[in-house]
């Protein structure tokens, strides 16, 4: 049976299709060369099987002809039922009649300007998301440093924030690692690339993306827990949160790796057209769906608590402060993913790239901004320590001046 064409892009589908057809034709030619030659006058043995770069022409005797249909590839040929014929003459195979580009109606191929424009577009896209991930990584490292340095900021809520920040750092690092391995050399054929390094890079990237979505889910779960169990210690749940945020993605990726190794170990594992991609995609969609339910439930509980006359103004402000960041992030992170998940991978590629690479690269910066830099508790602690440092410096300067004067 013919091999199933799998690829990351329609262009790769074309390349893999012809590679598979060529391999099958060469196998036929090899088997024919091992068979004993049939006796006959010189030049009358017939035309041997031949691969012309598009189709495989089976062997026929001299004076007979062979007809094949156009390759069934809509990206190149408009027609797939047209017939192309070749005759076997004493001089060998005749030229295809009619030619492929007439019989199959070759699709118009972009000129050099289109190719240069597309190359410029991808270069611009790479510069934009590189700047975005670099900005996000700097902001996230600074935010983790702030939460770690100030003792008063050590709590379960900020510990969860640190894990969430770490998942963004891993995601940004995974993008840079993937680019370095897959796209560092322009001479590499990405359609057939199948090395251990590229598979490890893709696996690490998938794990970081999964961890990113599941730590966003943990943020939503923690927020809901705070509103439901106001007087319960939240430290008892931290290990469950860690298990969900890091453990579930690890288990999912392990299942995906074993599945690819067993049933679909081809290429660089970055083909999103494969059915096994749902091993990664389904848990992400599940996390987004659960987060959306949490979003609705938290909104309902928050409205009830704000309307309640038994809750003081300070508590109402506290609830608002706890929820505004997470309620903003949940729809922001999930909506575009759900929208694109409903369409095939080859539809809306430009829009998908823009949302996932360019806008997605700044999500880490937005998270650090909402959870750390705009956090009133963090700002107050920084101001307090800044004031203490200034007082200490002024005191040291006064002591030095006094020593000089007395001396």
Automatic annotation (TrEMBL):
Principal location listed in the UniProt entry: membrane
Any one GO biological process: adenylate cyclase-modulating G protein-coupled receptor signaling pathway
Keyword field contains Glycoprotein: yes
Topology in membrane: Multi-pass membrane protein
One annotated GO molecular function: peptide hormone binding
Keywords: Cell membrane, Disulfide bond, G-protein coupled receptor, Glycoprotein, Membrane, Receptor, Transducer, Transmembrane, Transmembrane helix
CDD domains: 7tmB1_GHRHR2
SUPFAM superfamilies according to UniProt: Family A G protein-coupled receptor-like, Hormone receptor domain
Entry superkingdom: Eukaryota
Pfam families hit by this protein: 7tm_2 (PF00002), HRM (PF02793)
Subcellular location field: Cell membrane
GO terms for cellular component: plasma membrane
InterPro entries with a match to the protein in the record: GPCR_2, GPCR_2-like_7TM, GPCR_2_extracell_dom_sf, GPCR_2_extracellular_dom, GPCR_2_secretin-like, GPCR_2_secretin-like_CS
Annotated G-protein coupled receptors family 2 profile domain residues: 24-108, 125-375
Name the record gives this protein: VIPR1 protein
Organism: Ciccaba nigrolineata
């Amino acid at each position: 049976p013919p091999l199933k064409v799998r690829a990351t892009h329609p262009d790769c589908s074309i390349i893999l299709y012809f590679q598979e057809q060529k391999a099958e034709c060469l196998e036929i030619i090899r088997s024919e060369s091992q068979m004993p030659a049939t006796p006959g006058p010189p030049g009358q043995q017939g035309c041997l099987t031949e691969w012309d770069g598009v189709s495989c022409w089976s062997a026929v005797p001299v004076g007979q002809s062979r007809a094949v249909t156009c390759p069934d590839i809509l990206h190149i040929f408009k027609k797939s039922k047209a017939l192309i014929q070749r005759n076997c003459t004493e001089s060998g195979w005749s030229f295809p009649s009619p030619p492929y580009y007439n019989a199959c109606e070759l699709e118009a191929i972009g000129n050099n300007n289109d190719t240069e424009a597309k190359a410029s577009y991808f270069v611009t896209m790479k510069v934009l998301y590189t700047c975005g991930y670099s900005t996000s990584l700097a902001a996230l490292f600074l935010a983790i440093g702030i939460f770690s340095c100030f003792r008063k900021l050590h709590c379960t809520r900020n510990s969860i924030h640190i894990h969430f920040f770490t998942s963004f750092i891993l995601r940004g690092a995974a993008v840079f690692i993937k680019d370095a391995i897959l796209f560092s050399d322009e001479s590499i054929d990405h359609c057939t690339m199948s090395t251990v390094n590229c598979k490890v890079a893709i696996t690490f990237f998938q794990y970081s993306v999964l961890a990113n979505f599941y730590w966003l889910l943990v943020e939503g779960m923690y927020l809901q827990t705070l509103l439901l169990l106001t007087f319960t210690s939240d430290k008892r749940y931290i290990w469950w949160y860690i298990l969900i945020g890091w453990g579930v993605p690890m288990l999912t990726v392990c299942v995906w790796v074993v599945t690819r190794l067993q049933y679909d170990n081809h290429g660089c594992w970055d083909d999103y057209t494969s059915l096994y991609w749902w091993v990664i995609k389904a848990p992400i969609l599940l996390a987004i769906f659960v987060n959306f339910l949490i979003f609705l439930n938290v909104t309902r509980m928050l409205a009830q608590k704000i309307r309640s006359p038994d809750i003081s103004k300070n508590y109402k402000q506290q609830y608002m402060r706890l929820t505004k960041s997470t309620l903003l992030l949940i729809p922001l992170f999930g909506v575009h993913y759900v929208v694109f998940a409903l369409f095939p991978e080859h539809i809306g590629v430009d829009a998908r790239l823009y949302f996932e690479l360019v806008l997605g690269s700044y999500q880490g910066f937005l998270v650090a901004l909402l959870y750390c830099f705009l956090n009133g508790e963090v700002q107050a602690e920084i101001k307090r320590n800044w004031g203490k440092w200034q007082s200490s410096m002024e005191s040291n300067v006064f002591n030095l001046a006094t020593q000089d004067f007395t001396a």
